[in-house]
Amino acid sequence: MSLQHLKDTWDLDVFFKGGSDSSDFRDYAEEIKTLLSSFQEKADALDGGKPDIGKLKDAIGLFEKIDVKIRQSQAYVGCLQAQDMADLKANVLNFEVTRLTAEFQKVLVMFDNKLADMDDADWKTVLKECSDIAYILNERRTRVKEKLGINQETLIEELAVDGYHAWGDLYDSIIGQIQIPYEEDGKTEILSVGQANNLTSKPDRNIRRAVSKNLDHAWEQHADLFSSTLNHLAGFRLSVYQARGWDDVLKEPLAVNRMKLETLDAMWQVIIDHKKPFADYLSRKASLLGLERLDWYDVDAPIGSSAKEYSYDEAASFITSQFETFGKKLSSFSEKAFKDRWIEAENRSGKRPGGFCANFPDSGQSRIFMTYSGSASNVSTLAHELGHAFHQDVIMGVRPLNRGYAMNVAETASTFAEMIAADAALKQAGSEEEKLVLLEDKVQRSVAFFMNIHARFLFETRFYEERKNGVVSVTRLNELMEEAQREAFCGALGEYHPYFWASKLHFYITSIPFYNFPYTFGYLFSLGIYARALKEGRDFEEKYIALLKDTACMSVEDLAMKHLGADLTKRDFWEEAIQPALRDVEAFLKMT
User: Which residues form the domain of 105?
Assistant: First the structure.
């Protein structure tokens, strides 16, 4: 499949014309306000003691409608901010959407409390009448019982706008203003953080070292601001937890991801028990690069001279062709995303670093954001985000309340798509050297999920425990970060990245707590699913789609049992799932 003359900028006007000056968007926001007033009235009218099923269904209908429009608004403003971090008007819109979201959450607190007030007999009647969304309603009723009273939870939502969420916005603002100097051929270029990050995987070690040094200088220069931001974010969250009587900082992230602690522990333990081959890989890679040990900025460095670069059109053609080997629906969907300009990939300054996929549920579309510079890693990121978009497209066929899948299963679809592209590239390698380069790219991803993400998890859990006793200094944050990296990487590196806590956006995201372990879960879970796809071929696509449709209406343990017959709380599934990654690293070690 060949795609040519593609534009590498997205189309947002199809949603609201005019960007951050859009009058259409302001009208849309006013419509949300009107719906919120109606929802408030209907939620007020509910009698928790004696439920009226008709009134309850009307309230739920408004709940779903507002939720769809709020998510559409969040996606639009998020895209505006990402494409141009100097767009101050977009920042104003973001504040307005945050305020609307807080108002919505306040009404939901009251709505959930009405559900909690129902006695068990009446509640069984409600679940019978609303059987298609019974899991979600039950979940909301259970969670609200573990929180504070309605007045206190409403106050928390109000204070979060100018407190909790504001600190997250501050981090984005600081990152947007950081400029990284880069010198090449005697000329100095000013890069955004995202552009500079792309250079840290260049073949030339002098470039990697210079860019990393300049990035570290920026983190160090702003360390006090980043430290203050991180401490206040954590402080707000911990204060809320304390008020609710929650002692374990993992309680909320596990609940949000609909998984048990036993599942998380089983997954990490299997990874820890199988880290040695990956530590051996890091040592072998150092030898191949002529180094005694890899430093942090060498981990993603390419090996050999066959580090192929892809034009945007080539990447699009390659990805859609390889998706076709798995199933027609995934491939056709991805082709449409490229042709209809769902993707912002242009390599320019002023963009936010990183990549994401934003869902526009009211329009039934998605938008993908990244900075594309032609590397194999960029191609993987593109396939990864298309996996997210496909998941969102598939789940549009179910009720809005059954679309809110958690981050851990979200990363399943994205990683699954990434693996299809990676395996295909490896099979098509034209030489042993190219095969080795592509195999190493796959192993790098395992290192990222098993070591880098593990370091983030170790750092964040330990930081939160120390934050309970007071503010954690810059020096201590650096120590915690480096200790976590040494442990997670099995001491295999020379120099580490103590300021990683300042550089990683994920630590500052307020919408989802502990933005780390779900990535590793998604990676290993998808490896298990991918193994089955390889056995069953193209016939597996419909089973895969059925699994994706269920990702938002049951726990991950029930999801795995229903579609895979697997018990995630036991080691067996994870032992089986990690085998393909172990085979990759063993093949690399054998080839070298």
Answer: 19-162
Q: In this model, does residue 379 exceed pLDDT 60?
A: yes
Residue 34: inside a domain: yes
In a domain, 95, yes or no: yes
Please tell me the pTM assigned to this model.
0.85
- For residue 415, being part of any structural domain is answered with no
367: which strand partners?
Answer: 358
The residue type of 215 is L
Which H/E stretch holds residue 341? none
Could you tell me how far CA 324 lies from the centroid of its own chain? 25
Residue (of 285, 302, 489) closest to 379 by Cα position:
302
Q: Write out pLDDT tens, residues 407-448.
A: 899 888 998 999 888 888 788 777 888 889 889 988 999 999
Instruction: Report which DSSP code applies to 189.
Output: E
Q: What is the domain-level CATH number for residue 47? A: 1.20.140.70
448 by Cβ neighbours in 10 Å (0-12 / 13-18 / 19+) ranks as middle
User: What's the Rg (C-alpha) of the chain?
Assistant: 24
- Residue 365 makes CB contacts below 8 A (sequence gap 6+) with 14, 15, 342
Q: Tell whether 41 is covered by a domain.
A: yes
The owner of tokens 């141009």 is: 84
